Amino acid sequence: MAAQHRLIARALPIMAAILLVLPAPARAQTMRDALKSLFLVDYLRSLYQGVPDTSATVSSVLGAQIGTFPLSSSSSGFTWRFDPAVGVLVRSTRTFGPTMAERPFTAGQKKIALGFTRQYFNYDSLGGHDLKNSSLTVYRSDLRGALDFAWTLKLNMQSTTDLFFVTAGVTDKLDVSVAIPYVTVDLDGTTSFTGTGTLKPITARGSAKGLGDVALRAKYNLGRAGGTDFGVAMDLRAPTGDADSFLGTGKTSVKISGLVSQSTERASPYANLWMTAGGVSKEVGFIGGVDIGATSRISVFTDVVGRRLLDVADYAETTVPYAPNPLFSITLPTQTANGVNLVLWTVGAKVNLTRTVLLTGTAITSLSKGGLRSTFTPLVGMDYTF
To answer: What is the CATH number of domain 2-385?
Structure first.
């Protein structure tokens, strides 16, 4: 027990140092404020009675999906177990593991892993609508089925997540981790008018950076049966990020995962199943893939990630008759029924630079058409185990 306390005492100053060196939160206009300007909420309400705040509809969809995107794994690429036959720690697998998934293997008692990853998202569609080609309808009026006038939105939106993590091997079977995300979100939009007359485009920008939702993690190796390893993991994500600027969700969530993996000399297939409660949505999901040892210093991996956000709606547009004059119809942003399916495909590699230092490179591709979509997301990272 004293050894475990000493290990935690070594890890805590590292965690505190990460928090101290992160820049202070900064923002110009919040994302929600910028979207309210771009969706002309006050202007349209002054002209047409009863127009809803459509910016709130879009904000809830964007905020939920940015805030719940899975954090990269904080597991060490080097995993160890105690071998009683020789009385020392030995490598439990010859591959270095995937980026998004968790394997049942632990870092090993008294081991500490430090790591960093950076993910860059350039969002290109929302609910199947192209964000960069003025495809979002702010307000559209049709007369007898033909365009009367329309306001449409072109939206450039990017985010970056820098994840710092510390993992400590408390026992041979138990790891505890803290994952600290620092998130940057930028939004730049232009709302343009089409119809009779000339109206100037409306532009707005939003920018925010700061601490995201910090995750406290624990993983337990249940053991091996028939050449297959099993484990369980729990993530507790605290609402430390600013929800109004999409840096976090504003709500605490708990994720419970079941982990399974097989190991051979060159390949390690793996799978995760999970359920999430709390946060902005209940969620179920899976990851399945394989990690292959290309050489003694390089492993490559590929997997598919599937998620179902049960309480999150997708973006949609709805056309309804204009009550004061049924010859007209109007089109406004709306939401679908709750439930969004998101599918990702990842391909990557980890390179052992020296001793227990690993360099990671991963390409993440969105296979689903709905929701907030970034077609290609690069991720780079590094971790060190001692």
So the answer is: 2.40.160.40
- pTM of the entire predicted model: 0.86
Q: What is the pLDDT along the chain (386 residues), one digit of tens a residue?
A: 555 455 545 555 554 554 455 554 444 467 888 999 999 999 888 887 778 888 988 898 888 889 899 999 988 777 766 666 655 555 667 788 899 999 998 888 888 999 999 999 999 999 999 999 888 999 999 999 999 999 999 999 999 999 999 999 999 899 999 999 999 999 999 999 999 888 899 999 999 999 999 999 999 999 989 889 999 999 999 999 999 899 999 999 999 999 999 987 788 999 999 999 999 999 999 999 999 999 989 999 999 999 999 999 999 999 999 988 999 999 999 999 889 999 999 999 999 999 899 999 999 999 999 899 999 999 999 999 88
Task: Count the helices and strands in the chain (H runs, E runs).
Answer: 4, 22
CA distances from 366 to 125, 307, 376, 378 (A): 11, 12, 7, 12
Sign of CA dihedral 367, 373, 374, 377: negative
How many whole angstroms from its chain centre is CA 330?
A: 35
Q: Name the residue with tokens 């909420």.
A: 41
